[in-house]
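Lab notes, practical 5.
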Amino acid sequence: MGGFPVGGMIQMDSDWPEDVPPHWGCYISSDDVDAMAEKATELGGALCCGPQEAGDEGRFAVITDPTGAVISIFKGGDCKNPQGHGSFCWNELLTNDMDKASDFYTNLFGWKAEASETSAEPYTVFMNGEAWAGGMMKMHWEGHPSWLGYVSVENVDTTAKKATELGAHLCVEPSDIPGIGRFAVFTDTVGATIAIFTGLSECYGDDCGCS
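Output from the prediction step:
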């Protein structure tokens, strides 16, 4: 996108735990992948893929947190993240144990966990210094804990409709997040879940779908 990579795709082999479904991976930058992977296991996480080289791109490891969500640790060169529609704009942990997950991530990455007042449901915002690192909410359905990536789109309703036409299944119909924007969640044709989002600041007139 604009000459920069948006994401990647790999084949899940037999090294992956059997209960981990197809998913979009969330990568966290680290200065020392090996030390961070070791610390993750000390905090109750488990290694899916031990520290290894990612070709010429850098070094990475893949772990599961104590609640079962998969996350990757990465050290690489200068990588510019694309901005705008079609790029990832937010990451959110869906978990069945917010306290256990919060303890893990705050101790592993040095994040701070702050309760959000913008949601009727309990919602945590992870802060990396003064910057937002991601969100967390409790799962109210059966499923595997996971990190959910949000992709910025111009029109949530139009994109959701196109996704279903291409074979996706809507998990959450296009809905408003009061004071923030509009979103939808769907699983793609191989079962990986992804969200789409349009912020209120991007909405112009009635065409965006936000109310």
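Observations recorded by the TA: The first helix runs from residue 33 to 42. Residues 2 and 13 are 31 Å apart (CA to CA).
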